[in-house]
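Two proteins, back to back. First:
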Amino acid sequence: MKHVSMQLIPLSTAYLCLDCSCVGNCLHQCPACASPVLMGLASILDRKQEKRSRKRTPAEFPVWQAQLRSVA
């Protein structure tokens, strides 16, 4: 059986390559395919950085109001 070496990458420095779906910690290019198309994972997966949204009234969403009227 082949042993695979795994690297631990902190979420704050983890980037997902949108071309090959590999995760690395280089901001400039993917370590696997050298693509510059990367997305930071901390902004999506880290709940501590997430700001809690306040409860909004339906009046703040005029497009939704129009859709709700057409359904009702």
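And the second protein:
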Amino acid sequence: MQAELKKEGQNGEHMFNGILSSVAAGRAVSTVAPLASNIDYNLHQYEQAESIMYDKLRILDHPIRVLAGKDSCERNRQFLGTVAELIDAALAGKSGNRPLCYVYDSKFNTLTLEHTEKVKTTEVKVRGVKGDSLIEKKYENLLAADFLSAEPATGKKTYFTILVGTEGDLRGVPVQIRYQPNWWFQIVLNLH
């Protein structure tokens, strides 16, 4: 990553990857394309980057991956739709440890809601670089949902936790997501 950042700084060129997928029951098609840009896009510039990426994908000569047949997922759901489905089931008291398949980049994956736990109250405090308060919020009556995402072909497993509201306007809304890719690095996303 450091080498990539140094290269970007010297050349003024930023590298991104775009993925375009189409998923239907029993079939998925995906292609991935690199994009070099003189703009270091952020999430607020998504629409601008999206149109440039679509133009790049239209003239792409990269291979298109197709997932069909016995290795496919009969559900035509993607990752976020599967997360939402499992959270809705947990909030309705119908959660089980059954894995649901989803497709990402024409690869068959499974998502399992492994454990849920009621959280009476939690406080979120996020400070800025200068110590100023960016977020200071107290949430009540949450559900902590522990997930496992697995890619059967490679054996890769990813664990993450989502705290969701259980009532009112926050019912089903993630107020915090925790992901720890290794022992020394944890990402915490908070509702703002």
